[in-house]
Amino acid sequence: MPPGTPLEYYLILSAVMFVTGAAGVILRRNAIVIFMSIELMLNSVNLTLVAYAHHLADHAGQILVFFVMAIAAAEAAIGLAIVIALFRNKQTVQVDEINVMKW
Amino acid sequence: MNEPADTVGSLYPTLIVLLPLLGFLVNGLAGRKLASETVSGIIGSGAVGISFLLSLLVLVDLTGRPAESRAYTVTLFEWIAAGGLAVNAAFQVDQLSVMMMLIITGVGFLIHVYSIGYMHGDPAFWRFFAYLNLFIFMMLVLVMADNFLLMFLGWEGVGLCSYLLIGFWHTRKFDTGGYPRGAATTPDAARKAFVVNRIGDVGFLVAMFMLFDATGTLDFGDVFTQAPARFTSGEPLIVAITLLLFLGATGKSAQIPLYIWLPDAMAGPTPVSALIHAATMVTAGIYMVARCSVLFVLAPVTMEVVAIVGIATAFFAATMGLVQTDIKKILAYSTVSQLGYMFAGLGVGAFTAGLFHVMTHAFFKALLFLGAGAVIHALHDEQDVTKMGGLKKFMPGTYRTQLIAALAIAGVPPLAGFFSKDEILWKTFSEGSVVIWGLGWLTAGLTAFYMFRMMTLVFEGEPRFGHDKHPHEAPATMLIPLVVLAVLSAAGGFLGIPHALGGGNILETWLEPVFERSSRILPPSTHGSLATEYVLMALSVGIGLAGVILARKLYVSRRDVVDRFATRFSSLYALLFNKYYIDEVLDAVVVRPVKVGSQRLLWKWIDAGIIDGTVNGCAHALTALSTVARKIQTGNVSNYGLAILIGISLLLGFIIAGWNG
Q: What is the model's pLDDT at position B365?
């Protein structure tokens, strides 16, 4: 992290990433893209954590990032498995074609 | 009440009650598997037989005690304890209940034995014996209960058993004799008995509530001790209580206006008619009134009502019995009529006389019914007396026993019926009024007449049944009970030979302690002169014999007179044959309004309209709401995601706003 870069820059970048990810989750229809958008959101949070850890000189934030990454990896494995299972059953990964999650 | 100290006192009464229950359980649960008439029959009869022997032992035990300790209770367990209400499952043994126990188990045992022969070959033989045993159990609970609630259990129980047994042949058609139009099925008769009984039961139940409210206990001993101090003679409360109790008695003991179930109850197998509708169940009302004698003597109005209803029933039932053609119906009306006598006796305060007649009536009426069963059996389910005749030479044994029974009920000395009926008549004269006595006296003549009309039509003259029928004497299992009952019908009256005839009236002395308290409340007996008693005795024997001779004369040699009489007074004949149209009247006044009210008002309007409307309305409203609400659930993940996002944003917004503000 280059010295002198203000904390706000990181936070603005992080917010942009987060909103991009959230919009991706809501607007995109391809399950894989939605998945990637979720990763984007997670990483934006990671960025915030690291930035604050540096700013406050507290390592707890960085340690938390490791946890988030580990869980994101596990989540990626399970999520991909779900997508594969979904594709096997429906021959599609378009979420708007899969509207069984209701009554 | 003292608690007994020995096994006879404590164990036997319990066993007496529980054995028939055990018999019911064995036959009822395992009877189908046993699939053996012999085993079922022996279990059923044996349970009651042993109960009878134990009852005898209890009687012997009681006679061995000093007179003042002949009443005790056996407490099994605390049945109900709720606040002020404490009810024990406890049996009362005293002079009165022992007498009833002996009648129930003794006559009951003979009828069980008879049923082995009568029900031979019935596919549900075991079920029949199970029901019979259950009935005996319930009846014993009724007479041995030491509180109103336990008595009510037995009271309801015999009603249930009566329903089960009347409808035993539930597939058979049954001729109700004109009402309702056409033939009904036996379940109809069973239902009628049950429902009519229930009407009386309501009276019993309400009376019980009122008694508990007034005295705070349901225990016989406590209630009867408190009653003379708690109620002043003739106060409205006690009159209401006793009238309601009597309403219960009219239901169970088939008195006006609730007697209508008994003639239809003849749809059941004949041993059932003998056991329930002659010897035991119908005497429950008499027993109850006698047991509550203290309450009844405190309400002179009720006593008068009891006497009047009793004697009216006796008379009207006897007139109806005159024209019936179904052998069992003749006997049914005869039972109603004799029960009327008993109530007349109770109503004038002659409790012992009423109970004496209960006993003798149990003997000869059971005998008559069982004899009728033997005849019906021999003629392959023929019940119409006009299609019988001349059976004397085919069934000499049955004939002789029936003759004894008929003479006994007709009041011919020295058979049992003479003593008991005469005692009632004498008491109605000396304690009651001439009108009651006069009606009773006329009824005695009618009784003798219809009984010998039946005897003549069944046993005398030429056979009128088809040539395809070959009547035979009843088998031993049926004949032996007949003979035993015949002996009892002949000799049973010697227990109560009146003082006027130089007897000791053993029964009256025996029962005296039971009615001691009530006799102190009753106005002192007037004790008419001996001469009057002899004259009345002669009069009642006279009218009885006249009835016997007239019936024999008319139905043996002068049938033409009978036929001419029937055509001449056809409207009277129709009136009697149709039971004074009381079924029709009750139908129009009670049954139809209730039916229409239930259908139109309660069902169509209140139930279907208001109650169902409310419930269905709620459901419809929810359905409408959810059709709108479920549009939100699209099933599309993106929509859900958006919802979550908006939700979280709002939440965070609130939290942040909270921090700052």
A: 93
Give the three-state DSSP class for B3.
coil
The residues, ordered by sequence, that sit 6+ positions from B291 with a Cβ below 8 Å of its Cβ are B96, B151, B220
d(CA B30, CA B23): 10
Query: What pLDDT is attached to residue A1?
Result: 59
Query: Looking at chain B, how many residues does it have?
Result: 661
Q: How far is CA B581 from CA B35, B260, B454, B573, B584, in A?
A: 45, 11, 23, 12, 5
Cα dihedral sign, B240-B243-B247-B253 = positive
Angle, in degrees to the nearest 10, between helices B396-410 and B434-459: 170
B29-50: per-residue pLDDT in tens? 988 888 788 888 999 999 999 9
Q: How far is CA A64 from CA A6, A48, A52, B558, in A?
A: 22, 11, 12, 122
Of the candidates B57, B159, B110, B584, the one whose C-alpha atom is nearest the C-alpha of residue B370 is B110
* Contact (CB, 8 A) for B91 and B144: yes
**Residue B219 forms beta bridges with which residues?**
B147
Nearest chain A residue to B645, by CA:
A22
Rounded to the nearest 10 degrees, how much is the dihedral formed by the CA atoms of B546, B551, B556, B562? 120
Distance CA B261, CA B583 (A): 10
List B86's β-bridge partners, or say none. B81
The answer to whether B231 touches B237, Cβ cutoff 8 Å, is yes
Distance CA B170, CA B155 (A): 23
pLDDT digits (tens, 9 = 90+) for B495-529: 888 877 777 778 888 888 888 888 888 877 666 67
**Packing angle of the helix pair B559-568, B570-577 (nearest 10 deg):** 90
The pLDDT value recorded for residue B528 is 67
Give yes or no for A90 touching B (CB within 8 A).
Answer: no
Q: Taking the CA of residue B217 as centre, how many other CA atoms within 13 Å lie in the half-sphere pointing to its CB? A: 13
Instruction: Tell me the shortest Cα–Cα distance from A17 to chain B, in angstroms.
Output: 15
- Residue B505's region, left for phi above 0, alpha for psi from -120 to 50, else beta, is left
Peptide bond into B414 cis (omega under 30): yes
Q: Give how far Cα B561 sits from Cα of B96, B276, B446, B566, B618, Å.
A: 48, 37, 17, 9, 75
Out of B630, B638, B645, name the one closest to residue A95 (CB): B638
pLDDT beyond 90 at B621 = yes
**Taking residues A90-99, what's their average pLDDT?**
84
Mean pLDDT, chain B, whole residue set:
87
Contact predicate B2/B23, CB 8 Å: no
To probe the interface with B, which of A18, A20, A25 has the most B CB atoms within 10 Å? Answer: A25
Cα(B597)–Cα(B131) distance, integer angstroms: 36
Q: What is the CA angle B136-B142-B145, rounded to 5? A: 125
Higher per-residue pLDDT: B267 or B503: B267
Asked if B455 contacts B406 with a C-beta cutoff of 8 angstroms, the reply is yes
Chain A positions in Cβ-Cβ contact with residue B645 (cut-off 8 Å): 22, 26
Which amino acid, residue B47? A
Name the DSSP letter for residue B474: P
Residue B617 has pLDDT above 60, yes or no: yes
Whole-number pLDDT of residue B178:
47
Which residues from chain A sit within 8 angstroms of residue B640, using beta carbons? 101
As for the ipTM of the complex, it is 0.82
Query: Among residues B225, B519, B148, which one has the least CA distance to residue B352?
Result: B519
* Cut 0.90: pTM above it: no
